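dude i think i finally got it to work??
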Amino acid sequence: MKGVFCPLLILCGCLVFFGSCSTVSNIVKNEFAEKNPEDILRNTAAEYIVNSGIEGEAGSWIASRMEIMKNQLSEQIGDSVLIRQPEEGLLLVFDSDQLFKQGLDNVNEAAFETLRLLATTLKQFPDTKLYILVHTDNSSSEFIALSLSDKRAKNIKKILASMGLKRSHISSEGRGFMVPVISNESPEGRKLNRRVEMAVTANHRMIRQAIKSTKATR
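look at this
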């Protein structure tokens, strides 16, 4: 169930967040509907959550911590970021156009406040791991897209680290246009594919704490 749930969050969430039903064409919506959820999941940030392998009481304990984090982030940056909680992790999806100007890897100055609020909340949950995946559309060559997305991911990591997050707790990767959620044939599709995904998962310390806490209550 979890393996289907996460990609559907991306599918439905992107449609709602990056374009309302009145502005996203029926062609785009139909293409989403025809997608295999497992294909959408592959190589996205949600995959880190699905593959975390935490279930049972310990998973529920971690999920409760993630819900607290989700509520805080929703209140602070929910208007500019898609935030979902698939099981024992958090999935955040940013419209890449909000963070970067076209073709540039430097983060927009206007986006710094959003990243600051994100960092402030994550610092309250130090026993977590943050995965950053940056995607582009196919308007450039594969080499340029991979290079651009990788630089963008590293710059986001650098900024969050400068705001107090441990670099060792952050993983960044650029995926170029290799993992589209939809066809790049239309402007709407390209906009949906230009995205920054972040996954927040429990690190080993939180997992140990979850197991210890659930054993103590038995």
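Strands lie at 82-84, 90-95, 128-135, 170-176, 195-202.
im so relieved honestly
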